[in-house]
User: Fold MarR family transcriptional regulator from Paenibacillus amylolyticus.
Amino acid sequence: MMKPSNYHNKEHLIDEVLEAVKDIQIKFQAEDDEEKEWLLQNSPNPEVQELVEEMTVTMLHVLDAIGTLEPVNGITISKQFGFSKGTVSKITKRLVQKNIILPEYLPDNKKEVLFRVSERGQDIYRLHQAMHQQIDLGANRFLQRYTEDELQFIVHALRDTAQASWFHTEKDGPLLVSSEVIPYPDEVSHDNESTEAVTVNEEMNEIMGMLHTLNSRDLKKAKAVLEDVFFTKYED
Assistant:
């Protein structure tokens, strides 16, 4: 049995880990702006700079996917990179309008569209690739401070985190620490406002549970998708 002092020390360390995860999420959110600034500063010409200024993070990711896999259809982009089909459809339409990618229609299947990066889009694609090379170099330099054993532990912890859910369910047993529990619908008043509030809370819990299963790179994608789908207006 774990000694009380060891238990409290472990709980304290877990709290520190959770706080660190929050800090990392905030850092990655801030780096979206940092990446955009790097792209603007290193654009090869004013035309590319203007296009980059208008593009969202998700548009850049979809362009990167097309440049890597071309010729490629929307379904493959969705499966390979975790974007929804609706998001890919909206983004590719936007990229075609800006002549950043080109659609190709198969002679025997007019419904299936393949995408390639246009000559105009190649400049942005290469710029985006160069940015990720700089990020990889920076990440490599940062990780050099750790020993091989520490790096093996980091890899193990990150892979476990990517595959696990942090969302607590009844089958996991009772919580070891007290927490505020959202009441079930039959435990609250039955007026419309209360029922709606409970439904929203349950949906938020479900969404948070799904987000907890993602690694940091996928969290950035999720954030970008949410911004594009719900908070970005597209021209018809």
